[in-house]
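Notes from the 1:1 (GR / supervisor)

We went over the backlog. Supervisor wanted to see one worked example end to end before approving the batch request, so GR pasted a single chain during the call. The sequence is below; no edits were made to it. Supervisor asked that the structure be written out right there so they could see what the output format looks like.
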Amino acid sequence: MSPDLLSDQGTALIEPIMSLTLSHDGSESVISVVGELDMSTAHLLTQLVDSLCRAPTPLIAVDLSAVRFLGAHGISALLRSGQLAADAGGQLTLRALSPFVRRVLDVAGVLRHLELDDAPTPPGAQERRDSATPPPCGTDTSVPRPFPSRPLLGGSATVPA
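Structure output shown during the call:
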């Protein structure tokens, strides 16, 4: 086991599935999400945003640069968080979307329902994101190959094997 995964007492430390960090940049609250935003963690983001929406005119940014996985519940949490901020007279903006996160939100058809900060990526941030984020599903840089077909069970149609 790697020494950096051991506590001072020599016991194994378990890396969390997701962590949220709250910081402030002037009047804007910045939530940094690291890890997986899925069924077991998405409610934590929504709860944090809900607590921030108690302030008058909340301005909230969610940094998604270190998100490794974004599931349906995570997408729902982002939409719900945006609605919570809007209902409170404020705004929630997504920033530092990795290509992976942008693709998931695009395929889900929700980009038009979210406020995006498309500011340029700070130097060095892309390297951190690349190491934390897997390539989008279906990304294959190898030479395309034909898929052999096999019959569906009980039918005459075929699907790729």
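Supervisor's comment: The longest strand covers residues 59-70.
Batch request approved.
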